[in-house]
Amino acid sequence: MARAAEVSVMTVSYTYARPERVSEQTRARVREAAERLGYPGPHPGARSLRRGRAGSLGVILGEHLTYAFEDPQAARFLAGVAEVCAGHGLGLTIVPVTGAPGDVDRVAEAAVDGFVVWTTSDDDPVVDAVAATGLPAVVHGGPRRDDLSFVAVDDRAAARAVASAAFAGAHRPMVLSFPLDRARAAGVHRALDPATASFRVTRQRLRGFRDAWAETGGPWSRVRVAVCSRNSAREAERLAADLLAGPDVPDAVAAMSDELALGLLRTAGRMGLAVPGDLAVTGWDDTDAAAAADLTTVAQSLRDQGARCARLVLDEESGGGPVEWRVVQRGSTRRP
């Protein structure tokens, strides 16, 4: 390249790496020579090897790739990560995992400078794979490990607080739950032991809901737990058609997300159930749609949590410290 352009090797290097140090006329000569020789420019992989960094932050998404764009809370979380990446001139690499054996290899081969792990189960092997890379990493929501940074709300305390609003005056309470484990089997359970859930978020929220019902003097065995396979309003809407029919119709439902609660509310509306007279409902996340539906919910900022995860990976923030949350009381629940 240098011989073809009749310049020094250093000038060619500066043309691509530090173009401000080369005159416009010389840059044009170098690029003309590159075109004649069919040289596309420095290989990104080679550049990353020389610099010792890839210039990108990896997000391990334990869901189908489209989930990042379909789920509003996942999108907010990723927006927070992306905001920090943009401020540092870094790319964002989404690494989806599907439960297949190749997941571990996909993590090990990811060309990134660190990882943010979206909520997954305690037994997900990708968490060990992330730790084995030796790169900076943080887990959001769970699992919680001593060797990785961690960011999450106090799910148990928040669940207890919002379920206290849901279960006030209730006689037939129900929980609309996230999946229990990576099998993601949907179904309805009674006397469900929260410890059986390998997703930490699901487990802690179940414990909080159980705490709230125990405070009313009711036995946990009376609380049905309807498990959804994913955080989908459509799935909750379909499931609610059976849950809200028959002799054992719930009079209060604590849902683990606004998406699940909103799906339930749509079915309740079609069935002519009054909210909160016939059915009290709570959600989680305080989305824009929750406010429009007058839904009592837990407010948290997943965008802020995503940004916090990214800053931890970049060593701009130390670990620890609570994540803010609060219960927003609206018209979907009865007043105590």
Q: Kindly identify the CATH topology of the largest domain.
A: Rossmann fold
CA-based gyration radius: 25 Å
Going by CATH, the homologous superfamily of the largest domain would be Response regulator
Percent of sequence in beta strands: 5-15%
Count every beta strand, where a strand is a DSSP E run of 2 or more residues: 12
Which helices and strands, and how do they pair?
Layout: H1 2-5, H2 9-17, H3 24-37, H4 44-51, E1 56-61, H5 67-70, H6 72-87, E2 91-96, H7 102-109, E3 115-117, H8 125-132, E4 137-140, E5 149-151, H9 155-166, E6 173-177, E7 187-190, H10 200-215, E8 224-227, H11 233-243, E9 252-255, H12 258-270, E10 280-282, H13 288-292, E11 297-299, H14 302-313, E12 326-328
Helix pairs in contact: 6-14, 7-8, 9-10, 11-12
Please, could you describe this protein's structure?
With 336 residues, the protein is α/β, with parallel strands linked by helices. It has 14 helices and 12 strands. The protein folds into 3 domains: 2-42; 53-151, 3-Layer(aba) Sandwich (Rossmann fold), CATH 3.40.50.2300; 155-299, Response regulator (Rossmann fold). It has helices at 2-5, 9-17, 24-37, 44-51, 67-70, 72-87, 102-109, 125-132, 155-166, 200-215, 233-243, 258-270, 288-292, 302-313, and strands at 56-61, 91-96, 115-117, 137-140, 149-151, 173-177, 187-190, 224-227, 252-255, 280-282, 297-299, 326-328. The strands form 3 sheets. It has a 5-stranded parallel β-sheet, with helices on both faces. A 5-stranded mixed β-sheet has the order 7-8-6-9-10, with helices on both faces. A two-stranded antiparallel ribbon has the order 11-12. The longest helix has 16 residues, at 72-87. The model has no long low-confidence stretch (mean pLDDT 91).
